[in-house]
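Hi everyone, sorry if this is the wrong subforum. Our group has a chain we'd like a structural model of before ordering constructs, and none of us has done structure prediction before. Sequence below.
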Amino acid sequence: MISGKKRSPLDILNPHRKEIELLQYHYFLGECLEEVHWSSEAQEKFQQKVPDKKGKNALRIAAHAYQLYQARGFYNLLGNKSITANALYQMTEEDFQLLLIEARKIRAEELSKFLEGSFAGAQD
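Answer:
Right subforum, don't worry. Here is the predicted structure as C-alpha cells:
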C-alpha cells in the first residue's frame, strides 16, 4: 500500500501525484497486469475505464516501470530522483532496453558485492 491507503490502478489518473507516487502506481498497475500475464482482456478493460490515450500511455509506462524496478529492485523506486513516468513513456523501446540492461548489470554488481561481503568471514 502507498501511504497506508488501498491502491487502485485507476489512481494513476490523479494529476496531483508526486512523481515517486506516480511511478509507484504505474509499477502497481504493471504488477497487477503481470499477475494475469498481461492478458489482452485485462489491458482492454483498463483502457475502457481510462479515457482517450491515457489508458494506452499508462499501460506503456506501467510495463516499463514494472520491468525496470523488477530488474533493479523495487526499493530503488522509493529513492529514485532521475526517472520519471514521462521519461519512461517517451523513451524509445531501444533506449528502454539499454536502460534495462544497465539496471540488470548494476543489480548483479550489487548482489555480487553483497555476497562477497557476506561470505568473506566464512572463509577465514
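For your construct planning: The chain has one domain: 9-123. Residues 23 and 85 are 6 Å apart (CA to CA).
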